[in-house]
Amino acid sequence: MANRRLAPAAEQPAAFAFSSENAEWAKGQIEKYPEGRQASAVIPLLWKAQEQNGGWLPQKAIEAVADELGMPHIRVLEVATFYTMFALEPVGRFWIQLCGTVPCDSCGARELKDYLHQRLGAPGHVSADGNFSWLEVECLGACCNAPMAQINQDYYEDLTPDLLGALMDDLAAGRPVKIGSQVGRTSSEPKGGADTLTDASLFDGSRVGAWRQRFEDKKAEESSEPSGKAEAASSEQRAATDPKPARPDAGRAVSGQSTDAPAQRAAAGQTPVKSGDQTDAADRTESTVRPGEPTPPPVDTVARAEAAGAEAGTQSDLPRNEPPPQPVASGASEGTDEAKAQPAKKPEPTRAAPKTEGN
Amino acid sequence: MTKIVVDGTEVDVPAEYTLLQACEAAGAEIPRFCFHERLSIAGNCRMCLVELKGAPKPVASCAYAVKDCRPGPNGEPPEVLTRSGTTKKAREGVMEFLLINHPLDCPICDQGGHCDLQDQAMAYGVDSTRYGENKRAVEEKYIGPLVRTAMNRCIHCTRCVRFLAEVAGVPDLGAIGRGEDMEITSYLESAMGSELQGNVADLCPVGALVHKPQSYEVRPWELSKTESVDVMDAVGCAIRVDAKGREVIQIEPRINEAVNEEWISDKTRHAVDGLRLQRLDRPYLRENGRLRPASWGEAFAAIAARVKGTDPKRIGAIVGDLAGVEETFALKSLMTALGVTNLDCRQAGERLDPAWGRASYTLGATIPGIEDADAILLVGTNPRLEASLLNVRIRKRWRMAPLAVGLIGEAVDLTYPHTYLGAGPDTLAEIAAGRHSFAEVLKAASRPLVIVGMGALARPDGATILSAAATLARDIGAVTTEWNGFGVLQTAAARVGALDLGFVPGEGGLDLAAMTGAGALDVLFNLGADEVEIAPGAFVIYQGTHGDRGATRADVVLPGAAYTEKCATFVNLEGRVQMTNRAGFPPGDAREDWAILRALSDVLGHRLPFDSLVALRRTLYGAHPHFAALDAVAPSDGVATVATLAGRGGTPDRAAFVSAVPDFYLTNAIARASRVLAECSSLARVRGLEAAE
Fold this sequence. Notes:
The complex is a heterodimer. Chain A contains 13 helices and five strands. By secondary structure, chain A is mainly alpha-helical. In chain A, strands 2-1-3-4-5 form a five-stranded mixed β-sheet, covered by helices on one side. In chain A, helix 3 packs across helix 4. Chain B has a seven-stranded mixed β-sheet, covered by helices on one side. In chain B, helix 8 runs parallel beside helix 18. The longest helix of chain B has 18 residues. Chain B is globular, with a radius of gyration of 28 Å. The termini of chain B are far apart. The mean pLDDT of chain B is 93. At the A-B interface, helix 4 of A face strand 7 and strand 8 of B.
């Protein structure tokens, strides 16, 4: 990245004003923020100004945005020079932002850079036909499909010099191009197709979220109150029988079970969290619970019940002024029960000593 | 209060303290670059890293609150280690990173010798670098005539950016780019627009921003430093006058929480070259219409020849803006001995009278008192130019919690949001009558403050306006026994002292306008009054420091000492008595002013009864004891004064108030002699014209 300066005066337009449509849009953006915080809209406004000005930000646009938001000019210049997504000099019809950060670099971004150098010359210059300009930028967050480039608003991934050249030819000629991976893979799945999370049963609720069913069964046994709780129970039941898939259903097959996730343990009829794991995870040197004091009730039960209700589209009617019911099948409450059952598990100063060594 | 252990010492500090403050309370020194007590916390230099027990890595002590520290496992107070191995290693690491891009040009850097980076590299750094790459190079920036940049040296502490945005209220600087390419600059390299911009060079912990006028002239260890008081405006900022040999090289701020905190205005700082230029270094006599150099004897003889035999009613004396209390007292004593009652010190023509009480010409609320006010009404004043540091205090008050500030007078940018109420006495009358919405704001305030400026007083109906403002202050309950919310904003350093001495027309005496009129007087003694036009006719004796307007109109010129060359008392606009100290000697034959008057009194046959400054002060303190209480504001009876003023009444003229300081940079003879301030003035004028377009 080089020093970013405004374009030379010769290239600057004499004036800038938002088109009436964009001005209306800008007003909507500014209205999102409370009185006195209008400066928060600076990035959307700069973005719009750049869009209106053919992909780059002239000095007058920076000043217009600053005046619109009541900011000192230098504050908007700070923002505009900070982000490489704001082009300060004229760009081609297709502005290629080539990622040159480590993952892309190790996957061949350097060849792409050489190619662009060879085809378009130094970065930051518009090609003679006005079609292209290019810039090496920092990570654009598509490392899994490296190397990649952003051309105008879209990402083009898995590039090679040949693919990039063809892509540029297509763009210049106005032919339709494919956005995303140029080697035909779906989003960021492994080259050659998905090889994990392919078991359909992962996504039908029989494994992930199965603990809900167990929880429901237990609850139905214990609770005989039909009226108010019934609604909550039914909503939770609905949540259990029709859970939100944890992953978008891509119809993949599962090859094997290598993890030890709570849901898997629950499906296998075990406790979701191994009691040993739970005690190991606790840092007894930093416990806020003093020995001898009663264990505080799990305060997040209400929140969790509400979240479950919200997922199912209803409100939970769990009373807020009394201790919430203890879900028996959940991992957290089992841990608590265990802790209650074994009062000997108090913090032991002698065992905790090595942990405080670094303090 | 929260307990915290710093290097084994347990201290009890308020919970909202930062670790850095707690460490300082415990006596531990924490190096820092970006942190500054009077600016917001940035936390970006990382030099203040300390080890906090229990924290996984060193924490930036400037940005970590004591209340955020976790207690030990058994409830022990949190523990900070500022001398541990981890802390030392962290500091060395930070210093090494800071020095990666910092050039090793200390031998040619003006900051050398008072450079934070230099000092801290010595104290906390390592002796060598492991960095073999090229250092980055940053283009120099133009950010104004007062601050030179050497941006290679910048370590991006952003103190300058924060100062201008927070204290000065003129956010001209910013950091553009990011990462290695971050650069401090103004918008498209325009000059900074603040009248306090010199302070950014003081704040700069490295040599990136240095004072342009004093570039490459001195090293700090060559300077003799004298603590003194500024006289460029009536605020009386605490300054340190640095002289090399007999020449004053620079003026730096000194901390005085009651007045200027630690800032000074550009005029205060850069009037320095005005002390060298245009100086009167020998007496002059006018012969055949031209001034010719003369000896002291010749000059005194010429004065004695004119004064002797002249009716005291035809003799007058005026005092300018830069005269100390001592020489004003000596002049008044001499004139009293001669039987002269034509005395005046109100050079701007302001309608003030010490007979109304001291509260009628000072700011009784005091400058720190502004922080207690909860509504402010400015009448005929632009404090930003007339008393920059007072304006900083109002801005500071506004930043603590926004308060209503109303302005009657010229519509100007005060650097903080305010309500522009109107241009002249009509608006004041409307508010007083309760017809204006701002009247409700003032009435609702528990400590309202009404400040009347010279723009409202230096006009024929000034006394009426003062009366109207006092009536308003009384009606809104601004003046009680606890809170004196009525004050006058003086613009001249000499004024309050001279008014305290009663240097105003005696019985049957003429005032300044009458004295300077044609044919009023035969002899006029002018002690440094350069802002008045004296009509032809009178024989004018000018005693002053610069060949300015006063000396041009004089028949005899007596060279005096400037404020850095004498030990003189000045009373600031609050009524605070302060003393300057001599940092050098007056040039050539020039003498201290009281001594000139003492010598002249001998020639005139009315020898003044003091032979030394000590004897003079003894006499002065006998007559006016409050001058003996240095750095203190003598309490004044605001209630009685406001009652007196309110009782005077009258109908003011309808003309709008005009600013008393049209050109901030050129308000007195010293400032007008300064080339640096002349450049600032022309830049400000251009900026004003651009803003008007």
